[in-house]
Specification:
two-stranded antiparallel ribbon, 8 helices
Amino acid sequence: MWSATTDDGPFNGLLERPALRSLIPRPLTGRSILDAGCGSGAQCAWLLDEGAEVTGVDLSPMMIDQARQRCGSRANLLVADLAEALPLQARSFDGVTCSLALHYLRDWQVPLASFARVLCPGGWVVLSLDHPFGTPLPDQRGGYFQRQLVSDTWTKADVQVTQHFWRRPLAQVVDAFADAGFLIERIAEPRPSDEAMRRFPTELRNVIDSPSFIVYRLRYSGDPE
């Protein structure tokens, strides 16, 4: 039920994921893709259906179990912490996807270095984050220019969850990418589709003209600054 309400929900399924997938270079047939922070495997399954060879990693053993139920033996799935160097072979992936996972980490140096290390020359990363210009959250006290831990609470599948994540100004985001050797190639700022608004008018009305997520496509330059 949790995965279903995420996969077909207003924010993940109908707002963030279409934008993230729109920036992924095609075709994917025969490409080796890492899904970092893969959760219950929805993105892995989509990548597999697009013809990619997929490896998924997530911190949660429970999420990896759900991903295995979804993807079977088609994907290589393992428990791994993005805050630590990933146990994957260097120069073994054409691309990396990372959906709403990086902002749970205070320090991005290790995960971005892992992405750079495992990518083949010219490889790409498509990742999504909470938008730095998003509406301030109730416990956000320090202002836009400070990196700070904030929290948000929502109900999904009749379960109330509070998530803690880091907000940082746009300059800190861009500097982190550049320091790891990545160039920003494209940006998407998702807005609800007509279909999404028909299905979830109440849930999505506040994000029609206000930013919620941001998606970056990065290209590895191989020359960290």
